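Researcher: Hi, I'm a grad student and pretty new to this. My advisor asked me to get structures for two proteins we've been looking at. I'm not sure of the right format, so I'll just paste the first sequence and hope you can take it from there.
Model: That works fine. Here's the first sequence with its structure tokens right after it:
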Amino acid sequence: MTQSYVELCAEGRTLAGGVRIGHPGRGWGYWPLFTICQLLRLRWSIRISGAEHVQRGPAILIGNHLSLLDPVFVGLSRTWRLTFFTKIEAFERRGGWFFWSTGQIPLRRGDELATRWALAMSAWALKFGNILAIYPEGTRSPDRVSLHRLHRRVLIPVLQANPDVPVHVVAIAYPGTQRGRRRVDIRVSPPLTLDISSDDPQQLTDTVTKALLALGGMPYVHEFAREMKART
């Protein structure tokens, strides 16, 4: 890391152009909101299997994306300090305080400088011992069921920059209601076997895709979710 955490935060504020971004990976509100958000369990029945595969310390979780609440439910399921990439527009809206106060990483799509900054900040989050969550579909699945083609713009650089950090896939599903509460089923895989040094980006992406499909059993659509949404 060529920049200190303080220097990187200052750069991020400049790149954000006045949007409040807080302290990614270190937000003061994470644990207070973790406690408050447990109230969601009154409405949602959250079940997780395979969490024992994630050992203490930094890890990378790669998940399918069905709902805005996906990372919230994964975070609530265990006492993991979860950091994830969030489009910067979410920081600008009402409720944006949730993202900056819990230390999430803003990402401006299509901005190369902002992307490099976000990747550098993710390295600090891992250094702090956080769990880094990535949703490489880029947006929610249009049919709220299928796995769509994975973007490599963030996924591959994160994997290549952190070859010694365990990587797991996380499959989430919302299979209806039980006793008046909506069910959330989360499955976590053992660490993936990835050959970061020799596999090319397509091979790494294929390995992650196959692992997600095997874990979650969801249908696959070989099309970017954002493109499909644009046509509908």
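Researcher: Oh nice, that was easy. Here's the second one.
Model: And its structure:
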Amino acid sequence: MNIGQAARHSGLSAKMIRYYESIGLLKAAHRTDSGYRLYGDQDLHTLAFIKRSRDLGFSLEEVGKLLTLWQDRQRASADVKALARQHIDELNQKIRELGELRDTLQDLVEHCQGDHRPDCPILKNLESGCCDTSARA
């Protein structure tokens, strides 16, 4: 199948498929005499694997590692589990950070009068974090 068909079947754009091929996540496609890419069932299977990995938030580097482990029938499942656990740790850290951001913004919103006056703790907070006013001449 051509790249358009592969894109429709995989749920990825043709641009992403070309990108994944260019960075080595997907092996180089077979080409027709006129240079069109051709993809087979195994390529679609690999694209589905990549898409699902990305949907779960794995980085491109991690997807590469997962692909290597997936293709290595002699791998230890402990290696896969360790990579997944590391990703969970990273997700938990991001969740904590997002929670802190939400709480800070919620506190600022609660302290903003939201009326006709120009005084706004949200803007004051944003201003206070933007630059060091002591360095101004």
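Researcher: Is there anything I should tell my advisor about the second?
Model: You could mention this: The domain at 1-58 is CATH 1.10.1660.10 (Multidrug-efflux Transporter Regulator; Chain: A; Domain 2).
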